[in-house]
Design goal:
By secondary structure, this protein is of the alpha+beta class. The chain is built from 3 helices and 5 strands, in the order E-E-E-H-E-E-H-H. It has helices spanning about 40-60, 100-110, 110-120, and strands at about 5-10, 10-15, 20-25, 70-75, 85-90.
Length: about 140
């Protein structure tokens, strides 16, 4: 799937794919952003991906998701400023069936975003020239 990344103004950088647009923004010169930063969007993809698997697990078994939520927290390496650990706490209500607690952890562990962390892709970055036709 190709994504088109464009620059709608200010510090905004948006990604377009299919019928969707993911807006991002950067705080600049004391201005609050109008959308999450690209990095915050990236981090949100981890928890929401795991959440999709938890949701599917519950739906397949007819388990209510009321009171279920994931809390994501990070450990950061102080020397590099890079994330050293991502923690996901699947918070379950007291009514959640005990027999499924380990299985719901295994379901969240299937997250495709997490798997890409474990086996990162190679990056290839290039430039190309695009001519824009002049409309009279």
């Amino acid at each position: 799937m190709d994504m088109i990344i464009d620059f709608p103004g200010g510090a905004r950088v948006d990604a377009h794919f299919g019928p969707f647009t993911v807006p991002t923004d950067q705080p600049s010169y004391g201005r609050m952003p109008d959308a999450p930063t690209p990095f915050a969007t990236f981090l949100a993809s981890i928890g929401t991906c795991a959440g999709i698997y938890v949701l599917g697990f519950c739906q397949q078994r007819g388990i209510s998701t009321e009171g279920v939520r994931l809390v994501q927290s990070l450990e950061v390496n102080r020397m590099t400023g890079l994330i050293s650990k991502v923690k996901l706490d699947i918070q379950l209500p007291p009514t959640f069936p005990e027999k499924y607690k380990q299985a719901v952890i295994r379901s969240a562990d299937q997250c495709a975003v997490k798997k890409h962390f474990e086996h990162p892709p190679q990056f290839e970055i290039a430039t190309s020239t695009v001519t824009i036709p002049i409309v009279a």
